[in-house]
Amino acid sequence: MSRVAVTVMPRQGVLDPQGQAVHGALERLGFSGVSDVRVGKRIEIEIDAPDPVEAAEEMCDRLLANALIEDYSVEPLS
């Protein structure tokens, strides 16, 4: 059994309303110097497959990420 971590983020240039809301909140709380915030999601998957990274990439292509507006990366976990 293997574990992988999938990180899904909005593509550069795609509006990220959640990131904008967090950015505004940080400014209101007095955090200066923050020029941009992007909010994504991390999904950890435990999988039994010959190539767990390849299997997770197929999951992203078919379900976990919207290819039109999101990019993803997959990394094996120990």
Distance between the termini: 11 Å
CATH architecture: 2-Layer Sandwich
What would CATH call the class? Alpha Beta
Strands ordered across the widest β-sheet: 2-1-3
What would you report as the Rg, rounded to the nearest angstrom? 16 Å
Shape: elongated
Number of domain units:
1
Polypeptide structure, described:
With 78 residues, the chain is of the alpha+beta class. The protein has a single domain, classed as Phosphoribosylformylglycinamidine synthase subunit PurS (Mth169, Chain: A, 2-Layer Sandwich). The protein has helices at 17-28, 52-64, and strands spanning 2-10, 41-47, 70-77. It has a 3-stranded antiparallel sheet with strand order 2-1-3, covered by helices on one side. The radius of gyration is 16 Å and the shape is elongated.
Provide keyphrases for this structure.
alpha+beta, 78 residues, three-stranded antiparallel sheet
